[in-house]
Amino acid sequence: MRVTHHRYSANGSAQRTLQASSSCFSTISHPSKTTRASRDCPKPHLTAKGFQIVVVNYTIPHRQDLAFKLAGLNTVISVISGPAQIALIDAAAEAGIRRFAPAEFEGQAALRPQPDALDRGKRAALDRLQQYQTRGMQYTSFVCGILYERFGPGGMVAKGIGLRSGIGAEGDYLVHISQKKAHIPYDANGQPGTISMTSAEDVGKFVAAALDLPQWPPELQMRGDRMNVSRLVNIAEAIRGVQFEKAHYNPQSMEDALQLSRASGEMQAQLWTIALIATANGRFDFITSNLNSLVDVTPKGFQAWLQEAWQNQ
Predict the structure, then answer these.
(1) What residues contact 48, with CB distance under 8 A and at least 6 apart?
(2) Three-point CA angle 112, 254, 263, nearest 5°
(3) pTM for this structure?
(4) Nearest to residue 69, comparing CAs of 41, 40, 36?
(5) Which of 148, 228, 236, 238 has the fewest C-beta atoms under 10 angstroms from its C-beta?
(6) Closest C-alpha among 286, 111, 274 to residue 195
(7) What does the pLDDT look like over 63-106, one tens digit per residue?
(8) 85 and 74 in contact (C-beta within 8 Å)?
(9) pLDDT tens-place string over residues 272-309
């Protein structure tokens, strides 16, 4: 059976929620079999490469039209969130799509607290996909941990990723390399938080390879590297050749910081602290990386990636 790859994206940051989606397309050998949908005008830089572009509307009155445009496709890879993604899931089911990958691309869903301030509609999307799974539509969450791009010059937003996340700029998560500052969270046992990580480019390669797997489990975990935050900071210091100013956080100090940010109404400070707590609690870490063993992709290690990212800075 021919696998038709399908990516849906929306305006603004959602359009580029994951740079890996573009990387994924660059690894597909037959772009003419790949359709990308957009809320706005067609993308000439993609059509020039042979991709088919369709303009869509994700609102409920347009669901039948969306389902019509999905008809005949095999797989949908989503990089949108919230109500638009729910509409896309419903339309995919109506169109008989065989596989759907929601806009996940972080840690494992089972490790997220409820309620989750970082959710952005992800739980609702997974719940909806579980309903449609009983009707024959497979789905998988691509688990990649933290993207390396968070630690590159300018952070993720410099690559067009996470523009609406509130914590996508350089320094919004753990380390601000330009300012030579680091924030190290510790768990209740006094151990620094551990994270699994992957570059956006390698995520794209993993996703592209996964499209050819005969079956999709509910989660496909990929990893380029895994280390605790102290080790990550040591690598950044070695690459820059200077000691960073370090702030250390135990569970109580993080909780105090969260309460203070809530009292002051500073949303970005809340998200920053919640991400710090999540790191200490292992939200972005996982032991098993089943996709690494299922496909022929050799991801780049974090130190090599970071060295390359900062070599001309």
Answers:
(1) none
(2) 95
(3) 0.84
(4) 36
(5) 238
(6) 286
(7) 678 888 888 888 888 878 888 889 999 999 999 999 999 988 88
(8) no
(9) 999 999 999 999 999 999 999 999 999 999 999 999 99
CA dist., res. 196 & res. 292, Å (int)? 13
- In Å, how far are 8, 24, 32, 76, 299 from 71, measured between CA atoms? 14, 22, 16, 11, 34
Contact partners, residue 308, CB within 8 Å, separation at least 6 = none
173: tokens are: 């998560």
Encoded amino acid at 88, one letter: L
Tell me the torsion sign for CA atoms 151, 153, 158, 159: negative
How far apart (Å, rounded) are the C-alpha atoms in residues 56 and 72?
16
Residues 6+ apart with CB under 8 A from 208: 5, 24, 25, 27, 28
